[in-house]
Amino acid sequence: MTERAASSPHKAGSLADALARVPRELKIEPRWVCWRREERNGKTTKLPVCAANGRMAKSTDPATWATFEEAVAAVGRWRCDGVGFVFGPDRAFTGLDLDHVIVDGVLDAEYRWVVEEAGTYTEVSPSGDGLHLIFRGAKPEGAERSRRGQPGGRVVEMYDHDRYFTVTGDVFEGRGALAENPGVVERAYRTWIEPETRSSQPRLEDAVREASPGDMGDDELVERMLASRSGGDIRALLAGDCSAQGGDHSAADMALCSHLAFWCAGDAARMDRIFRASGLMRDKWDSRRGGTTYGAQTIERAISGATEFYKPRAARRDGSSRPRANNKNTCSMSTRREQQGVPDDDAAPREATEGAPSVEGWYVDERGRLWAADAAGGLRYTVTATAPWIACDLVDLDTGDVRALVRVAVAGGVRERALDRDVLLNQTRIIGALAPLGANVSSTNAKDIVRYLTDCERRCAGSRPRARSVVHLGWAEGALSSFMPYDAGGEVRFDPSPDEAVKARPFMEPAGTLPDWVAGMAPARAASPAFRCVMAASFASVLVALLGVQTFIVYLWGRSRSGKTPTLKAAGSVWGDPTEGSDSYFRTFADTPKSIVRAAALFHDIPVIIDELQSKGAPGGQASKRQIVEDLLYSLSLGHERGALNSDRSMMRAGSWRSLTIATGEIPIVGESTQQGAANRTLELNAEPFSDVRAAQGMHHLVSAQHGTAGRAFVEALRRNPAEFYARQFAQVRDSVASIACGHPQADNIALLAFADALAEFYVFSPGSDWQGCLDASLAMAVWALGNATGAEGGDTDLKAIQFVAEWLVGNRIHFDDYCENDRLERWGAIEDKTCATGYLWYVFSSVLDRALAGANYDRAKTLRRMEEEGLLVCDSGHRYTKQKRFRNAGRVYCVCIDNEALEAFLERAATGAGAAVIASQGGEPC
Description:
alpha+beta; 32 strands
């Protein structure tokens, strides 16, 4: 039954063999893309891919399309699943997609006719149970819909522009030739996508309705039309001017017929007469469309879309034909004020907060439909079924700008969006602003909606309530004020733009409980000073504004699989959901610098988290990578965006922030060539926060289920004390850290982390504990940070190297176990108990230790000489740094032998000597 190509998804073969059956007429068109399957929200989707660069392609951007040959060649390069054909703006081709119509290899009988009568190229879709038919030519005139569900879970779609079809070359029943068949296209559209409702579409010869405007002649009726409020638009259409429709003659035909449907009260014959006398009349009006004509179809659609019809006043003596412009939401209607005893000019109009108001020239009925009204209060035509209204003005606390909170009543409830005035009162931009809310707004009625909102502004702005608003997360009015989004809905509103609202979702709702989060974080925080420092940086971010310190970067780097990413996620889980995903809190250096900076402006006081420096590719190798990231991090540390222009050459609103940035990677940033400003603003730590891979994996699972609770508790606790208390306490911590920092350039930054660590311990991890004890523990963390941070030019480099060796041994112990080869792991040495004393020795292959020290940029000879001087090495006579040991199947091997007990004692002495300073709290403890 089905003639399948060799590369069909259901049979083996090459992609080129399969696509060889695609018609040449399609191949020569430069409108091809690649496509790739991806999972989004639990559903499989086919994403278009640009053949030139592997990025997302757009069916509306020809710059992302390619030739057929280029697309086929790029499939393997970008790991795509196939190629696709784009239906462009010229509407030269139409695609019909029949989903789930093939069951067990047999085409459903209901869809057999279109395949047999179409006579055009037909192929099996990638799923194997659908068909794609491609025709020459466009969809039927006025065919606006593109998709409709069918019985049995099937779906039928039809496109002629701004979409693409996957192309498999899996020709169905030998139908491999392209053809034009407008009759079949229109029948398929009318059958499955927009079935005709004939009861509401009378024929021209018998469509005169009972609601006809009496015996009024055509000329008199046209005069009334031209004297109405829409007279200018109607006059232009009657003159053949379609500039208001962008030069689209078909859209102008429908616009005039919509006016005529109201004024002619649905009299199709009269509409036809008046249209034929207009400047829009052309041969196409009488062109055949199946069993009817283009003109008849246009008139029928206009009549079926009309909800009310014009009646002369003589026919409305009882006033029952349609409601007049009068209801409880009326803000100002001149014909009704006198009857109600309301002053016409001096009294402020009443704003109806429960729905859209009626103002002079406009009427909103009880169903929320907006009508255009004449001066006498009579209704002329409907504008939209979902009248928007401005509920209140929003005063931006950062800029003082006043935006509008626009609401729309749609199915499912009232939806709202904060809009700038230049969007609200622009008939082009208002479509994109309100349509996503479900509002009935399009190019047809946008002009009237803007005129209605403009009249509302003129009549109701003086009495409209005002609310304070911000567009960013974090502190709303300075430190210790409302914190967004936790306090949204209180004294200050949180009204981000639509794009930023998506990025704020990870922070809107917490998951899990604070005790469970603390229980999961406490072991890692106690075991690893690196983990504790990164967690302190997360809490410290909201202290930047409180203490008036500068923003800076905390950068943790080290070898792969050392637990840097779960540490970063743990820091993010303080405030929101740090799991990966599109528009998520979790960022990587693979994201564009602009998107990261814009995210920082949205987060404002919440820390920015960025992972995986090594994933940022750049020409020029590692040095170029470091320079790109250095520039980005320096921009983040400045706390504001650089100036930029919008497409209309106006200055873009520049964002600012007061948060820390926490980043991770596998290579250092700060080097000899680093700008001094960037070096001063980057606290770079070289450490491995997790020695146990399973513990690191467990942290991934923990933060996905437990997040957003600690930040809420921390912010709430901070408000218990005045800002002056925190300033005094921080000054003491900063002085204590400075006394042991020996001029370290990062001393102030480390002091902020230490202060945040003490507050987090007191408020979150151990509520009610001794404040002095919290300060002492934070100072111990500061000592570690000073010893491991880049920038201590006068510090003890050998001590850092020995600390590295100790951490490296513990983190890689599995490579020294007796049975590591059984687990297919490379042996790096051995662990042996001492024969005459307690404790054990590390035997490390010299080549392995040399490689580890070189990878961490430490000098082998200097490190081993210091270890020998401190009595940490056990050596054979005649060999300064090594000792022989026998290994199974390897004979005797010279190893570096390290006494574990001596190593631990040395590091403890070093830490005790460096941490002689203490923080004496003189301002009392926090509430």
